[in-house]
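request received
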Amino acid sequence: MSDRDPGAEPIVVGADAPAWRHRHLLDVDVLAADEIDLVMRTADAMKGILARPIAKVPALRGRNVTIIFWEASTRTRVSFEVAAKNLSADVVNIAASTSSVTKGESLVDTIRTVQALGAQMLVMRHGTSGAPYLAAEHFDGHVLNGGDGWHAHPTQALLDLYTMRERLPGGSIAGRKVVILGDILHSRVARSNIWSLTAAGADLWLCGPSTLLRGLDRWGGRAAGFPGHGRFTVTSDVDAALRDADVVMALRIQKERMDSGLLPSLREYTARFGLTLDRLAAAKPDALVMHPGPMNEGVEIDPAVVALDRAVIEDQVTNGVAVRMALLYLLAGVHGAEGAHDAA
Amino acid sequence: MSDRDPGAEPIVVGADAPAWRHRHLLDVDVLAADEIDLVMRTADAMKGILARPIAKVPALRGRNVTIIFWEASTRTRVSFEVAAKNLSADVVNIAASTSSVTKGESLVDTIRTVQALGAQMLVMRHGTSGAPYLAAEHFDGHVLNGGDGWHAHPTQALLDLYTMRERLPGGSIAGRKVVILGDILHSRVARSNIWSLTAAGADLWLCGPSTLLRGLDRWGGRAAGFPGHGRFTVTSDVDAALRDADVVMALRIQKERMDSGLLPSLREYTARFGLTLDRLAAAKPDALVMHPGPMNEGVEIDPAVVALDRAVIEDQVTNGVAVRMALLYLLAGVHGAEGAHDAA
Amino acid sequence: MSDRDPGAEPIVVGADAPAWRHRHLLDVDVLAADEIDLVMRTADAMKGILARPIAKVPALRGRNVTIIFWEASTRTRVSFEVAAKNLSADVVNIAASTSSVTKGESLVDTIRTVQALGAQMLVMRHGTSGAPYLAAEHFDGHVLNGGDGWHAHPTQALLDLYTMRERLPGGSIAGRKVVILGDILHSRVARSNIWSLTAAGADLWLCGPSTLLRGLDRWGGRAAGFPGHGRFTVTSDVDAALRDADVVMALRIQKERMDSGLLPSLREYTARFGLTLDRLAAAKPDALVMHPGPMNEGVEIDPAVVALDRAVIEDQVTNGVAVRMALLYLLAGVHGAEGAHDAA
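response:
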């Protein structure tokens, strides 16, 4: 064993691991508790790989992972690219936003073309909510949603969950007060987090200017619940939201919100909702600070808050690579195949 | 043999395969019948590789394949990238359209620079007809033309030929009626196909608005022939063209044609030349439908036609990867080297 | 040994090689003479690798080299990419100029994010002088400066030095007259070359229009020296500069200089400072001609000069790959580790 390529060591997630049942990852709402647990445990194994000097295993050797983004992104795209390369996949990047592939071509044609070009796993980001669902109907391989419109960003929600479980004492978020602060209305990050955090038993608070809570406030108040899912509180009272919080996640404020009249000014947003040390003092002393990035420091979050040890924003990024490795691995069915082999 | 890396299996194209005699692939007009046959047989072997779970062989391991496109493209660029990666080459992508490499720099300087940077095989697309010929004079390795101006698109012609041979009963296009429908004038796809299809003995018809046949109609009529090559028919009579056709290839209509006054409107083009089920009914019942993509569905081709089983547009894309693998492999001289080794 | 993967052969730079002491490469000013010599000798070994049919060694297998450029560039970016791939590193390209990673995000946040994404070696180009120094303070791995503002371009200076040593008889530039001709004021290439060339004992002349020598002419004249470093001559007298020169390096003239009023016109620049055969006749008969590229042929350099055998512009490009391989290799500490292993 000692002269073996360390990259060839199997990825072990425990003998009692449940089976993974999904061909695609479109949102977190379909994941059962044991499946989310499997993602978390597989991501643990991937973090072990990331800690090696050569963070590379042959699990997806020769597989074609195509990353096609209709919206500009670096953070998420690179995270998927690194995750896929760490698993030895061949990565093809397509910047559809600036690409001729989509010139007058329907989404379905593009998906079929990308498949015919050899894509076996398709990571996509699209400005239209639901686009990955349409893609999944026409793609024979595996679709991973890297963000669609205001709808969902499942890998972000899973890496957020992983980071909370990793950093909260006891490793559970059941009963923990988690605050998402900012432009909830336009945030796919918030939407996916609502599902996974309430499913995990968090006491979830959504806080921001009332114009950026529209639609959500209908379900607001302690008594209301997301249809068919967990319960959460919607409020514009930032002090109430932050009081005794275990986790505070600030969202990026987009300048476009000003143009559309939903926000009077960045300055006013910062004055009323910016996450400062003062405001954070209302939370628990060791409350985690999170942000999906990229940050507008000095707008939705103060640099002094970012500098805190318990600001785990870079942990989120690193965990994002591990969680995406886990998801690529699980979706590719490699785990299932290895399980079968182990049983034989 | 059983514990051998399946990726290391040799690529077999038959003991009686002719030699490949070209350093570059600039157009199809210089390919003799036995050479085209060699490309087709090599592409067969590559399709076998594409059918493996891990579609990867080490044939070009460590070779530098540089893809430099002065025109935006995704389909062709990704096809070459996947083809090269399937052969284990190292791929460098350069988007010259948005790149500083070409800022005030002559084409020859750019080619020499790219070579000095390590390019061994150069895949290029350029807006100027003939550019790859100039490049080939100054490049010590192998140049593959990925499309130059209105002039040539040889890999497209070869993948079209491959797809017809694969799908037509009997596997030959000799005597088959093949119709190219649309903007022939500005189409490098049509120009390269004229050579390879007439050489293969097709009864080739070029059909479109007379403004988009200009220059070709000089050679038009059943009696005329392309200088030094096969014969074809040029017509604006879409019904005559489609009658009893074995293959109908629709070309993409560019909006720029409207701006230049060559077409009155997209709507009128669609009304007179759009490939609909109605029009296609004049062709043979099992006539193949092809399109080089990207399609403007509802303009030059109706979605109901695209949905037919005999619309082989995705086959074209997949065969494009196989044909480009074959060409990279043949040009790299790997085949010749292996042959010598086998003989020793 | 004969059946060994040739890619696995060790990179040998001599048993008496000095140790490499730097974690980052930010500029050449901190490199001692023996360190520059080590870079040159390591680059020699890398040129040996480039001469192999498969120019690939496993030295950096599985290492993540992230190339992030805030300014558009192809030449330097591709050179680093090829260098890293030749060493079997995994390369991630980020075009920060067109990327969302930097939307309102501070440089430090971007650097931390890129690190959290897995970057182990970071190659960066930035429009702000000093940016790589800031990055190095926040990055746990290795930072390589690919050009910052008008400040420094250390890999260019080292590849220029390598090319001169390779092509000058005797292999030394001590006492050689080296002329840098053009827009010295805005040139990071010139600035880094001033350090390395004067340190190597060259008789360095900086020549250009007086508006493009501003600040440097303060130190001008044969008597002046760069603070704490070698001596050089600053002049607008192109005939005096070229007289008996051993090396003439022309710099690219940017059109922006005209807009800012520093140059009356490109035509006048060419008339007064363009490197023509006539002007070059004043230099030594075998004087080397260099240019960092991309060239404006017919502006700062005449095509007839570029066509000379002693114009070593493509050598510079190829040597750039070898020098960057050497630097990646040295910075990664692979050399040190191998040395330790050899001693054991």
